Amino acid sequence: MGSSKQEVEVSYDVSNEFFRLWLDERMNYTCAVYETIEQTGAMGQGGQTLEQAQLNKLKILSDFARVTPEKSVLDIGCGWGACMEYQSSVRNAKRVVGVTLSTEQAKEVNDRKIPNAECIGADFMKWESAEKFDSVISICMIDHLCSPQEARLGKAVDIYREYFRRVHALTNKGAHFGLQAILRNRTPRIKKDLEDVYFCTHVIFPGGLNPRLEDIIQAVNPHFEVMQVNSRREHYQRTTAEWLHRMRGHEKTIRERWGDKIFDDYDRYLSTCVRSFDMHYSSLAQFELRRID
Ligand SMILES: C[S@@+](CC[C@H](N)C(=O)[O-])C[C@H]1O[C@@H](n2cnc3c(N)ncnc32)[C@H](O)[C@@H]1O
Fold it and tell me: How do residues 162-178 score in pLDDT, each as one tens digit?
């Protein structure tokens, strides 16, 4: 179902050092939220830095999840732990648990010894826990849950509903949930764009497919109520443009250490992302969800 452990490792285990070269210093590998998107160019110059915009994103989702010091927080698909660290150091959450399918990520996060935090290397869709949480955040993990084949068979909503059922079962009454997801909007009609999007889906993120907005809206029932949804399409265009710009700045190092294929594949993938958000093939949404008790 969705991306397997081996497929997730294709996406995230090229090398932590490779991603460290072009992500922000805390290694958020998801859309940042800029304060002044309208005033800046498509290539991301001007205005806030990527680092500041990533902190804005974490603040928005933590506010959606109503994180306060007396609460325990679950971060589903925690990546390299940027959100976990934010919950521990900025929101002073009493306990933070992150789950990731990537072994390299889990090791990296646990080695950092973030206070009150623990990272678990597991498949969230199989993970059993007796612990219940007060707040949940999940940033672009839902994009791994349904494969293109499963979507073609009409299984997407059931798969996402099972994810929301699991989140509900792991939370205390009154829990709030800050969810971020990349969305699939329009299918390209231009051959090159279609090939590039296919390449990103099947080579860079094998096993996963971005959901449609309406799939998520349908699937939250009967477990969560949608309190608000914000579109951040232009923000992801700018984030991916900034990643591309930073990665190109390290072209020589990347080609030497990881080979031409890695550089060329990531150049194609990030360029495709910038174009996909510009052309509305893809979008990004942030949801404030409240548990239905
Ligand atoms: C795009 S990354 C986002 C990471 C992080 N949330 C961030 O904002 O940087 C998606 C994350 O979801 C995790 N993931 C994908 N499928 C998963 C699953 N079934 N169970 C747990 N984690 C999963 C990946 O290992 C990865 O950490």
Answer: 999 999 999 999 999 99
**Nearest Cα to Cα of residue 77 among 166, 184, 173:** 166
Q: Can you tell me whether residue 44 is helix, strand or coil?
A: coil
In whole angstroms, give the CA distance from residue 54 to residue 56: 5
Residue whose CA lies nearest to ligand 1 atom number 11: 77
* Cα separations in angstroms, 21 against 11, 24, 135, 239: 16, 8, 31, 15
Q: Within 10 A of 101 (CB to CB), how many other CB atoms are there? A: 25
Any atom of ligand 1 within 6 Å of the Cβ of 101: yes
What is the whole-number distance in angstroms between the Cα of residue 199 and the centre of ligand 1? 20
Within 8 A by CB and 6+ apart from 119, the residues are: 78, 81, 84, 97, 98, 99, 100, 105, 106, 109, 110
Q: Is 207 in the pocket of ligand 1 (CB under 6 A)?
A: no
Centroid of ligand 1 to alpha carbon of 273 (angstroms) = 18
In whole angstroms, give the CA distance from residue 26 to residue 113. Answer: 14
Q: Which two tokens stand for residue 221?
A: 């029932």
Determine the Cα–Cα distance for residues 121 and 105; give it in Å rounded to an integer. Answer: 8
AA letter at 243: W
Q: Where are the beta strands (DSSP E) in 72-141?
A: 72-76, 95-100, 117-121, 133-139
Domain positions in the chain are 5-291
Whether the per-residue pLDDT at 26 is higher than 50: the answer is yes
CATH 1.10.3720.10 fits 5-291, yes or no: no
Pairing of strands 95-100, 72-76: parallel
- Residue 73 burial (CB count, 10 A): 28
Average pLDDT for 227-236:
97
CA separation for the pair 150, 10 (Å, rounded): 20
